Amino acid sequence: MILSQKLENFVLHCGEMGSRWGFNRTIGQMVGLLVISEQPLSANEIAEALRVSRGNVSMGIKELQSWQLVKVIHVPGDRKEYYAPNGSIWDLANKVFEERRKREIDPTLTLLRDSIIEPAESNEEAYAQEQMQQIHDLLETVTKWSAELQRLSPEQLQTLMKLGSSVSKVIDLKDKLLKK
Questions:
Q1: Domain end residue (candidates: 66, 85, 104)
Q2: Which domain of life is it from (predicted)?
Q3: pTM of the model
Q4: Within this chain, do residues 71 and 125 fall inside the same structural domain, yes or no?
Q5: Range of 34's domain?
Q6: Whole-angstrom Cα distance, residue 19 to residue 66?
Q7: Quick one: pLDDT band at residue 22, thresholds 50, 70, 90?
C-alpha cells in the first residue's frame, strides 16, 4: 500500500501526535492510517504503508486493542485478520479520554485522597494539603464534567461546542444580573 503525499503527511503527523495522546509514534501512525483507510487493513498492509516491521505492527495492534481503538475484521475465505477503527471518530476520542482517565487521572485522585486524609503534622504539610485538596477538587470536577460529555451524542457534543463563547457570555450576564 502506497500513500499519497497528502495522506502520508497526515499519518506522519498522527505519529507525532501519538506521544501527546499517550501512545508511541508508530501506534499514532497506525491510528491515523486506519482512520483514513476506507477498507480494513491487514497487519502486512499496515507494515508496508508505514514502512515498519510486521512485529512492530503486531505489538501496536495489541496496544490499540487494549485501548479498544481497533477491531478485528474477518473476511470470508481469507485467513488473515484485518483491522479497522472501533467506531466513529467520536467513539475513538471517548475511548482515549476514558483510558487516559483510568491510567492518569484515577491514580492521581487516589494519591491525593490518601495524602489529604492523613492529618497534617506541620504548617508546611497543612498548606500542602490545602493545595492538594484544590487539585483534587479540580480533577474531580473535570472528571465528572467529562463523564457527562461522554454521555452526549456526537450531535449534542457538536451543538455544545458550537455554543462556545456564547456560554461564557450567558455566565457573564448572569453574574452581572446577580450583582445588581
A1: 85
A2: Bacteria
A3: 0.76
A4: no
A5: 5-85
A6: 17
A7: confident
